[in-house]
Automatic annotation (TrEMBL):
<feature type="transmembrane region" description="Helical">
    <location>
        <begin position="244"/>
        <end position="264"/>
    </location>
</feature>
<feature type="transmembrane region" description="Helical">
    <location>
        <begin position="51"/>
        <end position="70"/>
    </location>
</feature>
<keyword id="KW-1133">Transmembrane helix</keyword>
<feature type="transmembrane region" description="Helical">
    <location>
        <begin position="20"/>
        <end position="39"/>
    </location>
</feature>
<keyword id="KW-0472">Membrane</keyword>
<feature type="transmembrane region" description="Helical">
    <location>
        <begin position="140"/>
        <end position="166"/>
    </location>
</feature>
<feature type="transmembrane region" description="Helical">
    <location>
        <begin position="178"/>
        <end position="201"/>
    </location>
</feature>
<protein>
    <submittedName>
        <fullName>Uncharacterized protein</fullName>
    </submittedName>
</protein>
<feature type="transmembrane region" description="Helical">
    <location>
        <begin position="317"/>
        <end position="341"/>
    </location>
</feature>
<feature type="transmembrane region" description="Helical">
    <location>
        <begin position="284"/>
        <end position="302"/>
    </location>
</feature>
<dbReference type="InterPro" id="IPR036927">
    <property type="entry name" value="Cyt_c_oxase-like_su1_sf"/>
</dbReference>
<feature type="transmembrane region" description="Helical">
    <location>
        <begin position="82"/>
        <end position="102"/>
    </location>
</feature>
<feature type="transmembrane region" description="Helical">
    <location>
        <begin position="109"/>
        <end position="128"/>
    </location>
</feature>
<keyword id="KW-0812">Transmembrane</keyword>
<feature type="transmembrane region" description="Helical">
    <location>
        <begin position="391"/>
        <end position="415"/>
    </location>
</feature>
Amino acid sequence: MSGIPADVDANAAPPMTIPLRHFVVALAFLVAGVAVGVVGGRAGHLAQVHLLLAGWVCLTIMGALTQFVPVWCGVELHSRRLAAAQLALAAVGFAGLAACFLTASRTLLPVAGSFALVGVWILCYNIGRTLLAAESDVTAIHFGWALVFFALVTAAGVGLALDHAVGILPLLGVGRQGLLLAHGTLAVFGAVLTTVAGALAQLAPMFTQADTGKVDVAAQRAETALYPIGVLALAGGRLIGSTLLAQLGAVLVAVGIGVVAALLARQLVSARVEWSPMLTRYSIAAVSLVLWAGLTVAAWWQDPLSYSGLLGHPSTVLLVGGVGFVVLGTLYHVVPFIVWVHRYSDRLGFEDVPIVDDLYDHRIAALDGVALTLAYGLLVSEQWLEMPDTVALIAGALALLGTLLFASNLVTVLVEHSPQSLPTLLIGREQTAAEES
């Protein structure tokens, strides 16, 4: 993990300000989301969900897609200007949604939702046009489906926002409960986990250097074909209240996630590189997703339409252990990687330069890993068992400490190693029209 993999084209990447700006803003959403959870408790649940899933996870995904689709596929990004515009619109929309939920300002929800929709749809158009110029592979197929789910989930979100404000759903003949379940399904299992599966198909073999056998390839191809169908069936069944359709989708989704997790676990066990914060967090995610898939498939078969079972059982294992630790681990490589390419790659062979993993502080990475893992364990224990209220407070404090350490470690990479200052990364001018792709 000390350099740039040979099978990616770093020259195809957009200017570093575009993805890094997404990641820095996403880190702010992460800290805000954990803080809201600690201070607001259950009263701030909807705000926290949108701060973490939409603000942190989705903005991170938007930045990662913008950076690595051109790099992995070896094609130019369709438009750098659109990539720069999507962040501002989506971030305002996600922050506005959280603020509306915190203040109970229902009438402003459609406004915030519209900003989010436009920002996300710009991403879908820009990355979609970029993917059209690339060769189709497992990762590209996953990303293409993820764009479809991003478009659908934001449309469903605006529908829910309009219903909150003016009660529009009865006029459309759509049930609120069904649309809410479909919205959550498309968000987590569609937009987020489809992207995660596609990214892991590249990242896990790349950074473990593990061999990929014929069984792995066959399992991955089956998951690629069937998982998106499962998401659509589960979301559609929940939308129209069809138990049979939802059951079919539930099995495909749970099995698909289980396959992704099992392949990741096998590659981690067979890793031929030094262990790193990225792989450590991936190992937690792999175990969590295998556990979640095994427990959820039976529960969903019994009742795939209940709100309490929206994200499976237990949901904390999926969201924190699965999604959360995958994103944490990925950022521990992606941010230093982008900075290294722009700051040190041209100097390689002419002078001593640090490796990618030298750019962040490993002691802080170890501390944030311990804090977040302990918080995760306490949250799962609280969800499974009857625990005193102090356990939730301790878990929240550990989660906040861990996220602050994590965010500070990555921001320090930017401050100490980036060729541009942090203010320039956040508000600096993008490329000129002549440089626009």
